[in-house]
Each structure stands twice: as structure tokens, then as C-alpha cells.
Amino acid sequence: MHGKSLEGNLEGDSPDRDVFVYLPPSYATEPNRHYPVVYTLHGYGLHAQQWIGFANWGALERDMAAGTAKEMILVAPDAYTLQNGSFYSTSKATGDWENFIADDLVNYIDSHYRTILNRSARGLTGHSMGGYGTWRIGMKHPEVFSILFSMSAGSALETGAIAPDVAQALEAVKTKEEDAKVPYAQKGSLAKAAAWSADAEKPPLFLDLPVRDSKPQATVQAKWAANSVLVMLEQYAPNLKKMKAIAMNVGDMDALMPSNQAIDEALTEDGIAHTFEIFHGTHNDQVPMNFEQKVLPFFSRELAFDTSSAAQAGGGAKGTYARIKVHGKSLEGNLEGDSPDRDVSVYLPPSYQSSPARRYPVIYLLHGYTNSDIGWFGPEGRGSFVNGNTMTAAADRAYSSGVGEAILVMPNAYTIYQGSMFSDSVTTGDWLGFVAKDLVEYMDSHYRTIPERSARGLAGHSMGGYGTFRVAAKYPEVFSSIYILSACCLGANLSPNPQSSAEAEALKSPADAKDAKRGLATLLAESAAWAPDPQNPPFYFDLPAKDGKIQPAVVAKWVANAPLATVDQSIDSFKMLHIGHDVGDKDGLARSNEELERVFKAYGIQTQFEVYDGDHTNHIVDRMEKVVLPFFAKNLVESR
Description:
It contains 23 helices and 23 strands.
């Protein structure tokens, strides 16, 4: 599979990685059944193909026959690199292995196999370098994995100490050809340096060693120490407390036993629940036994197992839909005269009625221009939400397939000019505040929500995608995850057509704008949202051109509301968020959405981005079911 997170690594390792997948016996015979997944990480010097034989994946079927294990999917990515191993770390030299595992690989497996799409059904385990990777990735991505088992973890505490003769030998390596001849026992130091102290200015190996000219390099040694398990624990202990279960073990004749004991002591001191066992054995000789007798039974006890999609949805139960009214204090007194009492569509997931003590994350949805909430939820289906294929039906299907349940909420933002543009204006009202404050407060006080940022997501299409950007930029403390679908209005129009403004100037009152054609209505809506003027009745906005002449001051206001012009000012907000966004390859908005991804990438912001086969509207219901709801199931906290 292709690893987007590994693209451009300076070692030159391929971002296309071999991945081995074990499917249990019933996978082919029970097409409606979904399965938990255990991601397994091999040790240093191995390929994934060697690892599955070494760990003896075939033991799973013996365990199932003995009743000590259940059916699950097993996955092993190949992390063999130029230096014999990636150490599952993130560096310019090796690539971003953390996000390759937690993002690229998990998304690939979830989209290609019948998995249970939430963290309670994902486990992570590994041996040696893979045991280290289990700690590293697990503690940094508790939103993805809920169960960890580390076997004989390496790199518990790294000082960067290298024997003088070894350091001298490694310093002499100047080419990749010489690198290939480095003895196995010494090459591990090169692998760690590539993973933890990469240096883009030092080709061809692009790494710094912690010892140079027989002298310790304090800065490099500090980088190594910062990547050790015990040091990372100091920062990420709160994340490990979110795990459902953690286990670790090591052999009594393993040189890594003392450092694993130190990890155990640190976990205990931090109050992190876990089990620790010292078994009789060396570093390698008990791995097959360990995997069969310890690891597989552990995951069989702790993972979420459901035998069928019907079972996952409570026997095929469906969610419930209601349309309610929510008063928007933020919308009071808007000069357009639109009602501050807004219709809001609310979808409650299948288990909401049958589990009265359970609380749920909430996904707030924003519709597009000229649309409304009932254009998504029915009965007035628009775009791809037609012929009964409503957002309710899509959510039912998603939650029946094992996606973690959430409450869905969509306010009606259809206004006198056919859409609010989800902006903040005295003319339209403060729609940003309505979504992030009024609506959230109402839902938290009237429904069994989890009233925390980590349990709130925001998504929207077209005008709603634009609104998602605007709300998230201003209120990152309210939402933890966002998904932008085919956002409109990203770029600034520096040369508006005066003729369009002339049509608007000819109107005598807002009543004349009723049923205006799309272009004129859009101009009115955008002017009301982005160039309000309380001194200019009866419309209370300024147009970008007047009497055939461009109005630079008004155009500047439009620019100030264009995400691509303002994103640099909101980078800190977006760094706080899990971000997904997409656009169809035949959508006229594809280029501007791709530019938004380029900006995110330039600032080092990790996103889930895709250009898919489609136009502006034809696949939105499918994207919601198969991509957006799973995205939030992965990134929001689970119902509880």
C-alpha cells in the first residue's frame, strides 16, 4: 500500500510498503460480519514476511480451536528500511512512520476490509523495535488504538552512548555503498540516528551521530533521550490512561529486562493500569510461544468483538430523527430580519433509546448554499440525498457496519438570500457564534451528549465546508475534529464583475430579491455576510461595485473573509484539530481545495485529504457514510 506519510523521505525508501493481512476463517463465509484488527510491528532487522513466521500467526487458529482466542484480522506492515529498520519514528530521513501506521495504514485497512470502525476494536503489539513502536505510536495516538501489548521493548532509555571504536567506524561511512557494508551489530546506531537525529543538510545518510571525533555531541544525545520510552512517558502518560488495556512482558534472560522493569515502574508511578510479566526466556527464543499463549488471548479478552453487522447495530435497529427549534441569541437583531429561531435536524443513533445511561459524541453538520437541513435529512432531498437516500439512511448504514455511533445535528441556514454563508455580520447575524455557542449549548443541555471538545466534530459541504473552516478557525476550543467537503468561497475575488452589482443596485427592497436567480442571489448573500453596512438601508450591506466602479474598500472586506487569504492567521487553531477534507476531481472547486491542502502541508499540519472521482454534489451522501462518519468515529471519543 502507498504511504502518503512516507513520501519524500531522505533515505530514499519506497513509500509503497508491503503489508501482510491475515483474514480469519469466517471472513469469506460471513459477508456481513465485521472484525477487530490487531496491528503487529516487527523488530529491527526483520521484514514483515519474516515476522509473521517468527511470531507464528498460524497459532491464532490453534488458539481459536482451543477456545483461548477469537477471530480477528492481523496486519503486519514492512518497516525494513535503508538502515534495517524505521524505529517507527518520525523524521525527515525515514519518513513519518507514526502517522503511516496510525493514519495511512489504519485508513487503508478500514476502507478495504470489513473491520469494526472504532478504537475499541483496534489493538497494537510488537516485539523489540516493534515493542518500542507499540509504546511510541500507542501513547501518541490513543484516538486510534485502545489496547496495547509490548513485547521486550527496546529503547526504554537512550543516552546516545556509543563505544568509541564503533563511533569511529560509523563516522567513516560516507556513502550508501559503505553503509550497506556496516556490520549488523553496528548498524542499529545508524538506524536510531536516522530516526531520532536526522539532518537534511548531511547527505547522503542525512543523520547526526551522538559521538563525533570521540566526543559526545550533547545536542544529538538530547534528541535520542527525547525519543526514549521513559522520557516520552513523562509527556504522554495522560494518553495512556485512556487505554482500555495495556500489557507488557520480557524474558528473564533478556538484556532488555532491566529497562522494561523501569517502564513498568514508571507506569505504576503514573497510575497507569497495566500488567507486566517476566517469563523464562531470552530476547528471541520465546516469541512464538509469547504470541500464541499471551498476546492473542489478551486481545481476544480485551478487543470489542461483534459477530455481525446486525449485532453491532443492536439487531438492525435504526436511529431516530426529529426536527426541533433552537433559539439563536447570536442571531437576534440581524438586519435582514431572518428569524433567530432556527429549525434544526437531529439524528439520534440506534442505541440512544435503548441505552438511557449512555452519552454520545456529536457531529455538527453544515449544508450548502440554497439548501437546508431537510435537503439532507428529507423530505426535500437535494443533490445526492434523493430517493430516500437521506442522511438518516446513510447514518443507519454506517452505524450498522460498526462505525462508532454519534448524534448528528444540522441547523437550517437558509435565509432571505438563500444562505447565511456561515459568517459573522450585523446584517445576517453571528452564524459562527450560533453554531459554536448557541447550538452546542442547546444540544449539551437537552440531549445525552459528552460535553467535551474531544467529543465534538464539525463538517460541512460547499457553503457548509466554507463555514466549517470559519467556525473552526474562530472556535478551535469547541471542536476537536473537522471535515471539509468541497468548500466554496476559499479564494478572494479581486476583480468582481461590475455588471453583477448593477443588477443588485436595481433592486428596490429585499422583497425584490425573492426567487432571485443563482448568481444575483449569491452576490446578495455574500455582500450581506462580508460587507455589512448598518447605515445603508434597506439592504444593510455594500456591493463590491457601485455605479459601474469597483469599490476597493468593499472588495477588501470580501478578501478578509476568504479562507486562503486568512488561513495563515489561523494556523494555531488548525494545529489543534484533526482535519479531513476532500473534493471531486470534476468539481470546479477542486483547485482551490487542493490549494488549501497545500497550505496545510506547508505548515506541517497533518490532514486526511482526497481528490475522488466525482463532481460537486453527486457523491456527498456516499462520502458522508463511508468516509466522514468513520473519520469522526476514529477521532472523537467514543460514546460511553
